[in-house]
Task: structure prediction
Amino acid sequence: GENVEQHPSTLSVQEGDSAVIKCTYSDSASNYFPWYKQELGKGPQLIIDIRSNVGEKKDQRIAVTLNKTAKHFSLHITETQPEDSAVYFCAAANTNAGKSTFGDGTTLTVKP
Amino acid sequence: GAVVSQHPSWVICKSGTSVKIECRSLDFQATTMFWYRQFPKQSLMLMATSNEGSKATYEQGVEKDKFLINHASLTLSTLTVTSAHPEDSSFYICSAPSVRFVSDEQFFGPGTRLTVL
Result:
């Protein structure tokens, strides 16, 4: 099955700095890579996603890059704000099978 | 985006009792729903795939007789934790893909916190 590794497990940055979270996956059949933000006691919320036919996607301060050959993808958050503090999960999915496999999560803390 | 609700949001029960958790897609139909379990400071672990009108598919290591799943309609799936024990205490989250949207996105419910005393 799919195996997703996520690093780092914790990340602390100063407000205004950039944050980068990296994930690797093992199954070459995975074709959809979403990133979720989870606040304490709540369900995950999709913040950005990318498909295997795209190398990069950006949405305001958030961007995701995908390297299919190396089987890794990254989340980039620029101009971080305290409200960006949360746990971020990457996931890899084969949309034909429907299931997603999640990384272990990264706790991001943005210091004012 | 689509909305998925869960009820209850939290529940406390005594060991040995059964607890039912509901997952509803509010503004779209979901032939498939996924049930996840999340322990504190850990990732989401897929427990089972709920299929409308047919039996659920359980992940390896998940006891189907303990975690009963029923997907009786296109907007409702239920997870019943039978004979709950303290080790079943966890955050249970459901999700559903929406075929209404041209997207592979999964829509997650807000989760249900189960505490077994």
